[in-house]
Each structure stands twice: as structure tokens, then as C-alpha cells.
Amino acid sequence: MNEKQAVSALGALAHPQRLRVFRALVAAGPQGLTPSVLAAQLDSARNTLSFHLKGLSQAQLLTVEQQGRNLIYRADFARMNALLGYLTEHCCQGAACEVGERARTDC
Description:
Blueprint: H1 3-13, H2 16-28, H3 35-42, H4 46-58, E1 62-67, E2 70-75, H5 77-88, H6 101-106
């Protein structure tokens, strides 16, 4: 992942509703969700949801597959991991660091 791609992904996630959509798709796992299920889970209007799905898709954070009459949206886990890798690429100046449970509880 390069800087331009990271900025695009982070920009897409920088909206509360898009972040909720992405997190719901991450939680759904590889089977993904249809827009109608997402809209019901997030209590969101379908046209608003469509706008946010488009933004996440343009940032390449989602994949979409047509199954019959339904669209199935899935989080792109490889892309998500690439973004995390980009963000932590030079963590601790290349030395091993311990960012584990302790860091989460210190926050």
C-alpha cells in the first residue's frame, strides 16, 4: 500500500456512518451482508447507505458480488490488513515492540 491509497482508505473511514458500515461488514466476516440487512442493522436509510457503500468501495475497502438479485458486500480483509501494515510499518523504529493487551488497558 502506498501513501495515496492509505489516505484514501483513512478518508473513507473518517465518517461515522462509513465506519459503522465497515465495522458491520468486518463483523459479518466472509459471508458479507446485503444492503437491506446492513440498513436494518444500522437503522439507516437505503439511499444513505448506498452513498456510504460507494465511498468505501471507491477506497477499495469493500468487495461486492452479485448473487442472483442481491448484492453481497464484504470487507476486503487483505486491503484492511495492508492499511494496518502501512500504518505500523515503522513501529518502534523497526525494533520489536510490545503493543498488546497492556497498551489497550493503558488507554
